[in-house]
Amino acid sequence: MASYDVIIIGSGPGGYVCAIRCAQLGLKTAVVEGRETLGGTCLNVGCIPSKALLHASHMLHEAEHNFAKMGLKGKSPSVDWKQMLAYKHDVIGQNTKGIEFLFKKNKIDWLKGWGSIPEAGRVKVGDDTHEAKSIIIASGSESSSLPGVEIDEKVVVTSTGALELPKVPKTMVVIGAGVIGLEMGSVYARLGSEVTVVEYLDAITPGMDGEVQKNFQKILKKQGIKFVMGAAVQSVDALKTKAKVNYKLRKDDTEHQLDADVVLVATGRKPYVDGLGLDSLGVEMTKRGQIKTDDHWQTSVKGVYAIGDAIEGPMLAHKAEDEGMAVACVLAGQHGHVNYNVIPGVIYTHPEVANVGETEESLKDQGRAYKVGKFSFMGNGRAKANFAGEGFVKILADKETDRILGAHIIGPMAGDLIHEICVAMEFGASAEDLALTCHAHPTYSEAVREAALACGDGPIHS
Ligand code: NAI
C-alpha cells in the first residue's frame, strides 16, 4: 500500500493541473486515471481534438472563400478525411504525452485504473488500495442524452462520436444550439454537410447576451447552417445508416420529422461520478447530481475534495484548472481563491464568440444602472485587411462608477481578446482605464479599446 499526501481521481484539466501544483508545493501526489492516456475529456475527446477539426475546416473555408480575393489562385483543396483525422490524432498525442512528461518531471505517480473511495483517506484502484491524507475528485462529466434517444456513436452520436465519424455525412441534424452543437455543426457545415440545428429555446447559446445571440445566429445562418427554433426533440429513430428526428414545435404543438445521415446530440453534460462509491461514503450531492462542496472545495466528507465539472458552476476546462490550483494551495496551507465573476467563455466558431461577466439581461434583472460601449470590427483596419470585419466588441460598465461589469465579443480572435478585459476586471478597472491604455496599431485589440472609448466620449473610428 503506497501512501500519499494527495490522491487526485481524474487527469483532465482540473486533475492534472491540480496535481502539478500540489507537487510544486511539496506534496507527495498521485493521480488515478483509467483511460489509456492522460488529459481527460478535454485533451482526448473534447476541447483539443475539436479545435484541430475547427482549424482544418476553417482553412478550407478560407481557401474556398477568400484566397482568390487576395490574388491566391488555383484549385481549392479537397477534403482527405482520413488525413484530417490523423492530424487530429497527432495533436491529441502530442498533448497527452506532454502531460505524461510533466507528471514525470514533477514526480507525480500515475495510478492506472478506475478509482473508488471506500473511506476517507483511502483510494482503491483495481486490487490495490492507497492511502492519502487528502483525496480530490476531478472525475469530470459525460454527455447527457434525452429520453427516447439512444446513442450508438455511429448514426446517433455525442461529441465523442462526432469527432470520429467514418466519413463526412451529407446531412447532419444537431440537437441543441449550445457550444458543442454550434462548434461541431460549424466543422461539418464547412466540410460540406447540410447541417440543421434543432433547438428547444427561441435563442441559441443559452445564458449569453441577447444581442450576441441574435447576431451570432445571423452569422451562422449566412454560413449555411439551418435552424429550427422552439422545437422540442421527442425521439430519434435510428435506422441502419440514417436516423429520423421527431420534434414538436412548442408554439403550436405540431409534430415534425427530419432525416439525417448523422444526428449529433448536444443537449448538455452531466457530472461523471459513476463507480466512485460516493453514496456509501455519504458525500452530499445537489439535486442536479453535482457534488456539493464548501468554499474550500471540501465535500461533506472531511478530507475529500471535489473540483471541475463534477461540482457546481460552468463546465469549463479553465474553471476546473483554476479550482485545481486553488485547492492545491488550500492543501499546502496557503490561500486558494477562484473569482467566479471573471470566468471567460469562448465558442471557437468563426468568428469566435467570447464573453465574461454580466450580460445586459443579467444587469436588467438586478436592476443595475449600466452603460454600453460598442465597436464594430468593420471599423478596425486589421480586421478589414483579413476579411474579419464581422462582429463587434461590447463592454458593459457601471453607469456611475464606470467600472467594467462584463464584455461580449463576436469577431476575430475573440477568445484571446477577451482576456484583456478579464485582467482589467480582476483589477477593478474602469472602462476609462482601458480606453487610456495605448494599444498597438494595427491590431484587433484596438476594437476593445474603441469599445471602452465608446463607454465615455465615443470611439474614434465609427
Ligand atoms: P449546452 O447546455 O451548452 O446546450 C444544450 C442546448 O440543448 C440548450 O440550448 C438546450 O436548450 C438544448 N436542448 C435541450 N433539450 C433539448 C431538446 N429536447 N430538444 C431541442 N433542444 C434541446 O450543452 P452542450 O453544447 O452539450 O455543452 C455541454 C457543456 O460543455 C457546456 O457546459 C459547455 O460549456 C461545455 N463545452 C464548452 C466548450 C467551450 O468552452 N468552447 C466546448 C464544448 C463544450
Automatic annotation (TrEMBL):
Pfam families: Pyr_redox_2, Pyr_redox_dim. Belongs to the class-I pyridine nucleotide-disulfide oxidoreductase family. The keyword Protein biosynthesis does not apply. It catalyses: N(6)-[(R)-dihydrolipoyl]-L-lysyl-[protein] + NAD(+) = N(6)-[(R)-lipoyl]-L-lysyl-[protein] + NADH + H(+). Keywords: Disulfide bond, FAD, Flavoprotein, NAD, Nucleotide-binding, Oxidoreductase, Redox-active center. This is Dihydrolipoyl dehydrogenase. Residues 4-324 form the FAD/NAD(P)-binding domain. Transmembrane segments: none annotated. PANTHER family: DIHYDROLIPOYL DEHYDROGENASE, MITOCHONDRIAL, DISULFIDE OXIDOREDUCTASE. Its cofactor is FAD. Disulfide bonds join C42-C47. One of its GO terms (biological process) is 2-oxoglutarate metabolic process. Its EC number is 1.8.1.4. The active site is at H441. Residues 343-452 form the Pyridine nucleotide-disulphide oxidoreductase dimerisation domain.
